[in-house]
Amino acid sequence: MGILNNLKDHFKNAEFTVAPNKKLKTICDDFKKTFGCTLAVYKGNKLADPDLTIKQLSQLTSKEVKSSTKTELNIKASMKVGEAEKLFDTVFGLTVQIKDPTGKVCVDNNLTIGQAARGEK
After folding, report:
1. Mapping DSSP to helix (H, G, I), strand (E, B) and coil, where does residue 28 land?
2. Which stretches within 12-112 are classed as H helix?
3. How high is the mean pLDDT in each 10-residue block of the chain (121 residues)?
């Protein structure tokens, strides 16, 4: 069943876009609706205030948050968790962790987002 699920992940048409003026809680909610996993956004080593936008977060952190990037963030269920987390950092300068659907456990970076959403290990 794992091979079939992985194949389905390649064909899922999930649109996930991130704009600098979106609140972090909206981005996290959209991620959960799209992929079924929890997205945690950090400011330093603490969770960022969910009511901030990416642009507002860039004004409160010493790390450069790229709030005016024109690069589009494309994430698919077939991507490895580690790749997706790195993409957030590359495109927006955001530190994120993808967690299981309950939001309690960080997912193994070698799993795909689809595998993580299904609870595979």
Report:
1. helix
2. 24-35, 54-58, 81-92
3. 54 65 91 94 89 79 59 82 92 90 94 89 80
Could you tell me the residue ranges of all domains in the chain? Answer: 2-8+26-118
Q: In the prediction, which pLDDT does 9 show?
A: 56
Q: What is the pLDDT of residue 22?
A: 84
Angle (nearest 5°) at CA 108 between 42 and 74: 65
SS3 34: helix
Instruction: Work out the end-to-end distance of the chain between its first and last CA atoms, rounded to an integer number of angstroms.
Output: 14
Rounded-to-integer distance, Cα 47 and Cα 60, Å: 13
Distance CA 106, CA 121 (A): 12
